[in-house]
Design a protein that fits this description.
- The protein has a single domain, classed as Metallo-beta-lactamase, Chain A.
- 19% of the residues lie in helices and 25% in strands.
- Helix 5 packs across helix 6.
- The longest helix is centred in the last third of the chain and has 11 residues.
- The chain is globular.
- Bound molecules: fe (ii) ion.
- The site of fe (ii) ion has 5 residues, from loops.
Length: 261
């Protein structure tokens, strides 16, 4: 069975969320009511194709578990407009599917539009915005840009029905303002840990988790490109030092992980 049909058929218990990691900051979340929300899906090798002269190795190392044409989610969310997050080639393959809404900061919305998504399905988001989609409450959070090619980074807090609340940092440079997501008391957090190109390092991510205090922290953005990788076990060690009460939860690509309240 394909990963997409497994996700479609997967039953999520009440007060829980099921999470599939597809690499980098790409995740699919499923609520107990069956709503599927994705973040930053990078389902092509577009970075290597579009940026052949970048000078660093950005060939994808994680298999494509779901082809863009096969992707079938209800709500497609992006954190910022870098090609490994708002991937035009993924969106091109997906645009004619049943995806109801395409959510993201304005530069991501521009890409949705350029790739043929109708304006009625595009919903802009920004730090502190609040959106409702079926049984999911979406709140934008602060993120600090990592370079001047995109100055509109953001993160999200998602509340999945009567289930858990999750904070996603998105790509962000270190800033004391990131801890402001703690006021929403997330049960879970997903954080970048790679440290490269001004993203949070495993140590900075652990310090942030120590302030926000989720029950478990999931590392991401260390797996896709050879020249932007780090061993996630370093994040586990940093959590022990800087966030001793926060559990370390490493996800396996394309395998469901269920968290219940
Ligand atoms: Fe990134």
């Amino acid at each position: 069975m394909s990963v997409m049909s497994e996700i479609r058929g997967f039953a999520v218990p009440r007060s829980a969320v099921a999470i599939w990691w597809l690499g980098q900051n790409g995740f699919i979340f499923k609520t107990s009511a069956g709503t599927l929300l994705s973040t930053d899906l990078y389902l092509t090798d577009n970075c290597a194709c579009a940026l052949p002269d970048l000078g660093i190795d950005v060939r994808r190392q994680v298999p494509v578990y779901i082809a863009p044409e096969e992707l079938d989610v209800d709500c497609y969310v992006c954190t910022h407009n870098h090609a490994d997050h708002t991937d035009p080639a993924t969106i091109r393959g997906l645009r004619n599917k049943n995806t109801m809404q395409f959510i993201g900061p304005h530069p991501s919305c521009d890409v949705y539009r350029e790739e043929g998504v109708e304006s009625g399905r595009i919903v802009p988001a920004w730090p502190q915005c609040e959106l409702e989609f079926r049984d999911i409450h979406i709140r934008g959070t602060f993120a600090l840009p990592t370079d001047d090619t995109d100055l509109n980074h953001m993160g999200y807090v998602f509340t999945f029905g009567k289930g858990p609340r999750l904070y996603m940092t998105g790509d962000t440079d270190a800033s004391e303002l990131l801890a402001s997501a703690g006021k929403y008391s997330p049960d879970l957090a997903i954080t970048c840990i790679n440290g490269g190109f001004n993203n949070l390092s495993h140590f900075e991510a652990a310090e942030l988790m120590g302030k926000i205090k989720p029950k478990a922290a999931i590392p991401c953005h260390y797996d896709m490109f050879k020249d932007n990788a780090v061993d996630p076990k370093q994040f586990r060690a940093s959590l022990k030092l800087r966030a001793p009460g926060v559990g370390y939860q490493e996800l396996e690509h394309a395998k469901p992980w269920v968290f219940a309240l």
